[in-house]
Design brief:
Layout lengths: L1 H36 L2 E2 L11 E2 L2 H16 L4 H23 L3 H17 L6 E4 L3 E4 L2 H22 L5 H19 L3 H21 L8 H21 L5 H9 L1 H16 L12 H7 L4 H24 L3 E2 L2 E2 L1 H31 L1 H18 L1
Antiparallel strand pairs: 1-2, 3-4, 5-6
Helix pairs in contact: 1-2, 1-7, 2-3, 2-7, 2-8, 3-4, 3-8, 4-5, 5-8, 5-10, 6-7, 6-8, 6-12, 7-8, 8-9, 9-12, 12-13
Length: about 375
């Protein structure tokens, strides 16, 4: 038994290492191919980069995911669905990077990827609520909810990918957190795949952190969003514990908050939800004077604090068999307090600091409509 567990843990480590090495080695070659094909992000509009940067980094990330996945995972129903769905998501994203797709065509591709996952058995079939217990979901409720969850996370990661290293770092933190939790639950398959995602993100960051030499593009954002969403359903939601409900929401809180505020603002002003602008969190950090590097590091730290709070619900034994334990409860509350304080600090930076500077407020008000028109 001990040797089996050790072998399984080694597969997790090897999956991470192989993904890291493949993405490290292949990304420069993919960047050269993207430049040759003219698949580059030109400066201007809502983009922050000041020189042409090749995209399509998601192709290197996909190879970094698929090779160790085929090597270390048993391709049973759910894992096969994740791998095939990831291939569809990456393909749709790559086509969008090459020639651009209408929003409804891209949405159709995202639904197709989600459909593969759901068809392989990856769907939310129950929740565990506090003070209520486990509540099952019928297929007619769980399957549409899973479609919505997967497509939403794919788009949220895509929206977040607007700054050097930002999305790759957030997804890497999420992948590492999923790995730790899945291992603690004895779910080796999801743990290996989450570790592979972590390794791919870390390898890509070597080339994507400021100043970026390549962007992941829609191919990478849709790949990572699909895998993180699928993993949260296959590996985390399907367990009878309260953290199964909260963990994915807390880990992915940064892209969820970012997208929620942006969509709410666009609806308030009668703008199309799918139209890009400069209203995302990272744009607002830059507007108050943060550098790209400082912005990415700040958001990473925020995401890491939320991940620590989520993991504390699993690993700090503050409540056992209905009894609360004082010092573990204090520790868990302290970790959660740090995450809450960091969240309040972000709100202070993006709202109070902006309000305290009339110049920044006027510039932000002038910039948003103009940027939206240029990106239409």
């Amino acid at each position: 038994m001990l040797l089996d567990r050790l072998a399984a843990h080694l597969e997790v480590v090897w999956g991470f290492a192989v993904a890291l090495a493949i993405v490290l080695v292949l990304t420069p070659g993919v960047a050269r191919v993207a430049r040759h094909l003219g698949v580059v992000d030109e400066p201007g509009g809502r983009r922050i980069n000041t020189k042409p940067i090749p995209r399509l980094g998601g192709l290197a990330m996909f190879l970094g995911v698929i090779v160790p996945a085929l090597a270390f995972l048993d391709l049973d129903g759910e894992v096969r669905g994740l791998v095939l769905g990831a291939a569809v998501a990456t393909t749709v994203g790559a086509i969008d990077d090459f020639r651009g797709l209408r929003w409804w065509v891209k949405l159709g591709g995202q639904l197709a990827a989600a459909g593969i996952a759901v068809g392989s058995g990856i769907w939310i079939d129950h929740f565990t609520f506090p003070f209520v217990g486990v509540r099952g979901l019928p297929e007619w409720g769980g399957m549409p909810l899973t479609f919505l969850w997967i497509v939403a996370i794919m788009n949220m990661i895509n929206f977040l990918d607007g700054l050097d290293g930002l999305a790759a770092g957030v997804c890497g933190i999420s992948g590492a957190s999923y790995t730790i939790l899945a291992l603690s639950l004895g779910k080796i398959g999801p743990a290996i795949l989450a570790a592979i995602v972590f390794g791919a993100c870390l390898g890509f960051l070597r080339h994507n952190f400021y100043p970026a030499r390549i962007f992941m593009g829609d191919s990478g954002a849709m790949l990572l969003g699909f895998l993180l969403a699928g993993l949260s359903v296959s590996g985390l939601f399907k367990t009878a514990s309260i953290f199964a409900l909260l963990f994915p929401l807390v880990i992915l809180a940064v892209p969820i908050i970012d997208t929620s505020f942006v969509v709410a603002r666009r609806l308030k002003h009668g703008e199309p939800v799918y139209r890009p602008d400069r209203g995302h969190l990272h744009h607002r950090f830059v507007n108050i004077g943060f550098s790209q590097r400082r912005t990415a590091l700040t958001v990473w730290a925020w995401c890491a604090s939320l991940a620590a709070a989520a993991l504390a619900t699993r690993f700090v034994p503050f409540r056992d068999h209905g009894e609360w334990h004082l010092w573990p409860t204090v520790l868990a509350a302290a970790i959660g307090g740090v995450a809450l304080a960091f969240s309040v600090y972000v709100v202070y930076l993006l709202e109070i600091v902006k309000l305290a500077s009339p110049l920044l407020r006027r510039r932000d008000q002038r910039a948003e409509p103009g940027e939206a028109r240029r990106s239409a």
